[in-house]
Amino acid sequence: MQQSEWIEFLDAQPAFSGSGEFTLDPVMKLLALCGDPHLRLPPTIHVTGTNGKGSVVAYTSRLLAASGENVASFTSPHAAPAYKDHLTVNCEAVSDSVFGQAAQRVKEALSRYTDPTTTSNEPEYVNHLKSIGVIKIGEKTTQKPSQFELITAICIVAMADIIEPKPGVCVIEVGLGGRVDSTNIIPPSACCAFTSIDTDHVSILGDTPAKIAVEKSGIIKPGTKAVVSYPQSDAVRKVLLDKCSETGCEGFSEVSPPFEAPAALHNFPRHQVLNYMLACEAVRCVRPDLPVSNLSKDVLLNGSLMAGRFEAYQLEEGHYVVFDGAHNPQAVEGLVEQVELFLKRDPEISGIDVVLGILSDKDAGKIARSFARLTTATFHPVDVPSPRTLPAASLFDSLSTCIPTARLAVPSTLPDVLHRLAPSLSNKNPVKTAVLITGSFYLLKAAREALGSSFALNNKIFV
């Protein structure tokens, strides 16, 4: 299958299940039709949490690859249009051939989705998933898989059956929550890693960190060998420990201060140091013999900057464009710290234009207040290209209420804002400028496509 074909195939799929019910039934049936590749995966590191998941996946993958392990990694949000950015091998983009083969197999399986004779091997952990209510009728389901479930299946097929040489470890990022996330169909992990757990997606996961932790802790199954975690609140830690006790997992640990990060990370924001330390612990759980300390800054950063995680480019004209998918207050606080370091790194930058768009289920007020420290920023509220967008006018109101001194542009659409900002990024502007596109990953994807047609986004810089 060619890239244009898999893009057409995945673009046509529903973003969410038609029934609105979250279960693992569709992905279980889909993978059964593909020959149960999830049962052939090598040892996995399963990563969940509210913020920092993608960075932990990237650091973990870089540490493993730099230490000689062959590692395949799956990340959740796609900020690029071609979908294959979900999957990397040794921190490099997977080939079109590998992704195309896997996509073809999943597409063929989907064409047989109504086949009533599908049978699947059911290892013991499936009984656990049934007992906690995430597998209900399994392969008897008629509920069609969503786009993310199809992408999950494609990447599992690739990691299990197509990538050569075979990965020794797979690092897998949860999409949403954990318990009923499609990635939870994988067998018990060698290590489950938990970043910070706080409030986000409250309509689905719960309205307190403890309730959200219950959902996220669902990736711990009987047979999980180890659990590593950020420092958590007492309520969240109790949930994780209770789940470990329930499933028989005895290996629980938290990374704790003082954090002895390598010299390469001494000027990094605290949350990135935490991400790195958590990744080190995850690697030690899976490959205790690998040397993972004292890696150079280049080695660390080449694998840590992923699509949409403070992904910064310097244009030929000298200006900067940054993409970051910070879409909740905690993520914005980390982003602001990183922006401050970025502006300090290049004092010639006169100011920063922040193009911001979020979905309607986010707390716009708290997000706005988290941006208050960026006193040199001009904010451009926009609609996200999604039916779930928070209207730009509503976001404008939140920004003006929560940051009364903020410089605000009129609410608009993304194309209009990028058109207005284009002259400031051109070589006709002698004043060095930075544009930050942030909020929803849907926004980042659309902005990348639009800017890529006018500017060369190929000089990635490491901050």
In short:
With 463 residues, the chain is α/β, with parallel strands linked by helices. The chain has helices at 3-11, 25-33, 53-66, 96-111, 124-131, 147-162, 202-205, 209-216, 234-247, 270-286, 297-304, 329-345, 364-370, 392-402, 414-425, 441-452, and strands at 44-48, 71-74, 87-89, 92-93, 169-173, 191-194, 227-229, 252-254, 311-314, 320-324, 352-357, 377-381, 407-408, 434-439, 460-461. The chain is globular and about 65 Å long.
Question: Looking at the structure, what is the overall shape?
Answer: globular
Report the average pLDDT across residues.
Answer: 88
Termini gap? 37 Å
| Low-pLDDT regions | none
Class by helix and strand content? Answer: alpha/beta
Question: Rg from C-alpha positions?
Answer: 22 Å
Tell me about the largest β-sheet.
Answer: 8 strands, mixed
Instruction: Give me the count of strands.
Output: 15
**What is the count of DSSP helices, taking H or I runs of 4+ residues?**
16
How much helix, percentage-wise, in residues?
25-40%
Strand content: 5-15%
Across the major sheet, the strand order is 4-3-2-5-1-6-7-8
Description:
With 463 residues, the protein is an alpha/beta fold. 39% of the residues lie in helices and 13% in strands. The chain has 16 helices and 15 strands. The chain has helices spanning 3-11, 25-33, 53-66, 96-111, 124-131, 147-162, 202-205, 209-216, 234-247, 270-286, 297-304, 329-345, 364-370, 392-402, 414-425, 441-452; strands spanning 44-48, 71-74, 87-89, 92-93, 169-173, 191-194, 227-229, 252-254, 311-314, 320-324, 352-357, 377-381, 407-408, 434-439, 460-461. The strands form two sheets. The chain has an eight-stranded mixed sheet, sandwiched between helices. The chain has a seven-stranded mixed sheet with strand order 13-12-11-14-10-9-15. Helix 9 links the parallel strand 7 and strand 8 (252-254). The longest helix has 17 residues, at 270-286. The radius of gyration is 22 Å and the shape is globular. It starts with a helix and ends with a strand.
